[in-house]
Amino acid sequence: MPRTKLVLFGATALSAASLLPISPWAPSLADASPALPQETGTFRAALQKAQRAVDAQRWGDAEAACVRALERDRKNAAAWALRGVAAAGSGDVDLQAYCLHQELRFLEAQGVKRSEMRDKREALVAIDPTAGDLF
User: Fold this and answer.
1) 65 burial level (CB within 10 Å; 0-12, 13-18, 19+)
2) Rounded CA gap, 80 and 132, in Å?
3) Residue 82 vs residue 25, higher pLDDT
4) pLDDT (0 to 100) of residue 132
């Protein structure tokens, strides 16, 4: 078995082969990208299913798939954005506003420049006028 190095939590380097005896899920870690550890195959599959449901305007299916994706990565801004689109399609303005708030929160935490988030803030203020007080 090749000795693949992994970077976990940004500082500790472990060998995937050294994890095998103690953890049955270690082989999947060897295939994970260090830059995007949260994007597992299950996460991507759920997000793709949500996107297909949004494209087909099946809002309930899209919502359920977004929830499944967010169960695997609660801090993924793209998943929150897609859930907001599904909420808008189904007419749930409160959920749409919540999703936009979450998306902006995580984009800001990830270091996206405020100027790049201007359109998203304007969309949020359009459906939640009190949100303007937060910016």
Assistant:
1) buried
2) 20
3) 82
4) 74
